[in-house]
Each structure stands twice: as C-alpha cells, then as structure tokens.
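[Discussion] Sanity-checking designs against the backbone

I'm trying to build intuition for which residues belong where. Below is a structure token string of 349 positions. I'd appreciate it if someone posts a full sequence so I can compare it with mine line by line.
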C-alpha cells in the first residue's frame, strides 16, 4: 500500500502538477516579504523621462521580483525533479547565471538612481559567454547532437556542425533580450512566458517518451521528461508572480527576472531540439524585438523618420490611445493563440 503510494512520485505528470503548485505558492507567500523589504530599502524603479506619460506614476514601484521567482524555481526543482538528469542542472545553470547578470544590471540602476545599468555591449558579451558555456556543458554532459529539426516537417534535419554553437548563442541571446524588451507593461511578459513554458512542458513530455516521440515524429531525448516537470514549475512560479505583477503592479521582475527567464526558455528549446518552435510559441517576444530592430533601422535609413510611434511595439499601441490593460490583454490573447498553433505542430507534420 505504502509502496504503491510512493510509486506515484515516479510519475512525471504527478510531479508536474505538484511542482507547478509548489512554484506558485512559494512565490505567492515569499513575494509580500520581498516587496516590503524593497520598499523599506527604497529600492524602486527609476522611470525614463521620454516614455508614455502615465508610466511616470510607476516611479518607485519595487523591482527585482525575479529574485523570488528564481529562488522559488530552484527550491521546487530540488524538490520535484530527478536530480540525476543533467538537463535539470543545465536549466538551473542558465536560470541562475543569467539571473546574476540581470541582478548586477538592476542593482547598478538602483544604486545610480538612473535607468541605465550595464552597457548594452557589456551585457551582450556576458550573455554570449554564458550561452557558449551552456552549449559546451550540454555537449559534454549529454549525448547532444548539433542537428536542427524543423516543425511541420517529418524528416527534414540539417546538421549545422560547429556552426550550431553560433546558432545556439543566437537562440539564447534572442530569447533573453526579447523577453527583456517585452517586459514594459504590467503583466505583459509573464503571461506569454507562461504560455511558452506550458508549450515546452508538453513537448518535453513527448520528447522524453520513446513511444510518443516516435509516433509524433519528435526527436526522442532521453531524460527530457524532467524538463517537463521543470517547465511546469516555471508556469506555476510565473503565475505566482502575475498575482503581484497584475495591473496596477506591486512589483516588476527586473532584468534579473526577464533576462534569466527568457534565456531559460531558449535553453529548454535547445535541450529538447525544438529550437524553431520558439519563434512560433513566443511570437509576441519576436514581434517586440523585431519592432525595435525595424524602428532603429528605419530611423537610420531615413535620417530620423519613425516606423512606429515608439518601439517596442507595446509603446506604439499605448501612444495610439489604447489603455495599458487593453494592450496587455490583447497581447495575451495573441500569445495564447500562438501557443495553440505551436502545440498543433505536434500533429501537423
Ligand atoms: C528594458 N525596461 C522597461 C522593470 C522591468 C533599444 C531600446 C528599444 C531598449 C529599450 C529598453 O531599454 N528595454 C529594456 C525595458 C522598464 O521596466 C523595467 O525593466 C525591467 C525589464 N528589463 O522588470 O524593472 C519600465 O517598463 C515599465 N514596466 C511596467 N510594468 C512591468 O511589469 O509598467 C515594466 C514592467 C518600467 C515601467 O515603466 O520602468 C522600460 O520600458 O524601460 N528601450 C525602450 O524600451 C525605450 N524605447 C525607445 O527608446 N524607443 C526608441 C528607439 C530606441 C527604438 C524609439 O521608438 O524611437 C522606451 N522605454 C521606456 N519609455 N520606458 C522609451 C520610453
């Protein structure tokens, strides 16, 4: 009887369920203490002068809520994941190392009482080094191939050889910075993050199951099931954060949250060989990042004309007169639709 009861802990689905609840409640209970601590220390966000005017009233909102998300994810992972699987440690490596980078950036902004932390170039160099270290560790610790698989195609596979290192760096840097750019309105980044983590929970589960993987033409990745538990924890902790980040936000996640959570999604996509699914599931992040690239390119090419009223994209809609909640909820709807499209690629191939 007791044996049967304990057996339930072996099931990935059961641990996904418990992990997400643990992640949620840890953030839910710890965050109020953190908010109070940040308020006592007067560690609040410094708001840029040139932004949409209603953002000025957000000045002083505590930031760096990502610290509690990361802490809760680490604790839940230690509780619910099989720690013998290298993927779990590799995911934690990315989460923590990008978290430290973001933390330094946030800390400098608060200390200098200025919206500028680390220089963009400094950040990119550190992010690049961390991404390369991750891929080299991944190659060393697991039976990792440098092949690229395509959604919608059953048998299309390209071997990128060592060029894969550059590609992997692009995936991690892209997802980390795109999530950072998206994180500019209450609740805007965390819901699409939860959707993408949910999509990857499903794909990791399938990729780690030899029969499902074969049946659905997904590359089989032994041990990927543990990443399904990890992704479920990310969803739970993300929703715990949304509890406090919902408009009007009591706390922002800070770079410590956005850089690390974004990079972690990229790392998971790489580990289960579903890299090209990321721009579909995370289409909102892509649109936000693209809007900045296009805006800057157009501005330079035309000697000062703008394509959008302001980039990233959410500011464009705010300046068109949409309320903050309208922009955010509409972006959530699109992100949910994209999540469904991403899951449907399981069968459409
Ligand atoms: C960080 N940070 C938020 C918070 C959050 C190249 C250029 C496009 C870069 C870009 C930029 O700096 N992006 C990165 C964006 C900031 O939020 C903090 O930062 C963390 C995330 N990294 O967790 O700690 C502000 O966003 C608002 N916010 C909320 N609710 C949330 O839950 O309301 C954040 C979280 C907060 C708060 O007001 O202070 C940010 O937006 O600064 N730069 C820009 O985004 C700027 N765009 C710009 O300059 N566009 C130009 C060119 C260069 C493309 C143009 O269109 O011509 C805008 N940023 C802001 N105002 N704030 C400019 C206007």
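Best answer:
Here's mine. Compare freely.
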């Amino acid at each position: 009887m007791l044996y049967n009861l304990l057996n339930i802990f072996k099931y990935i689905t059961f641990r996904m369920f418990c992990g997400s609840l643990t992640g949620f409640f840890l953030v839910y209970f710890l965050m109020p203490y953190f908010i109070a601590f940040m308020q006592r220390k007067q560690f609040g966000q410094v708001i840029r002068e040139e932004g949409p005017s209603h953002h000025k009233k957000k000045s002083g909102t505590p930031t760096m809520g990502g610290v509690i998300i990361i802490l809760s994810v680490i604790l839940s992972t230690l509780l619910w994941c099989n720690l013998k699987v290298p993927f779990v440690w590799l995911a934690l490596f990315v989460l923590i190392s990008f978290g430290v980078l973001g933390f330094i950036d946030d800390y400098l902004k608060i200390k200098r009482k200025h919206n500028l932390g680390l220089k963009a170039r400094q950040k990119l160099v550190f992010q690049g080094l961390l991404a390369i270290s991750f891929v080299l560790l991944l190659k060393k610790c697991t039976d990792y191939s440098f092949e690229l698989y395509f959604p919608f195609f059953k048998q299309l596979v390209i071997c990128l050889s060592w060029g894969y290192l550059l590609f992997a760096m692009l995936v991690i840097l892209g997802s980390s910075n795109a999530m950072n750019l998206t994180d500019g309105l209450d609740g805007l980044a965390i819901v699409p993050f939860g959707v993408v983590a949910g999509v990857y929970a499903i794909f990791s589960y399938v990729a780690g199951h030899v029969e499902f993987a074969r049946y659905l033409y997904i590359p089989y990745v032994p041990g990927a099931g543990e990443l399904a538990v990890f992704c479920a924890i990310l969803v739970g902790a993300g929703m715990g954060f949304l509890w406090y980040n919902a408009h009007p936000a009591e706390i922002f996640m800070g770079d410590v949250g956005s850089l690390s959570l974004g990079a972690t999604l990229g790392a998971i996509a790489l580990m289960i060989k579903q890299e090209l699914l990321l721009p579909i599931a995370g289409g909102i992040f892509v649109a936000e990042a693209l809007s900045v690239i296009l805006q800057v390119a157009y501005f330079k090419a035309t000697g000062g004309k703008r394509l959008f009223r302001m980039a990233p994209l959410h500011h464009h809609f705010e300046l068109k007169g949409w309320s903050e909640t309208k922009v955010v909820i509409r972006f959530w709807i699109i992100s949910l639709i994209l999540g469904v499209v991403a899951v449907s690629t399981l069968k459409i191939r």
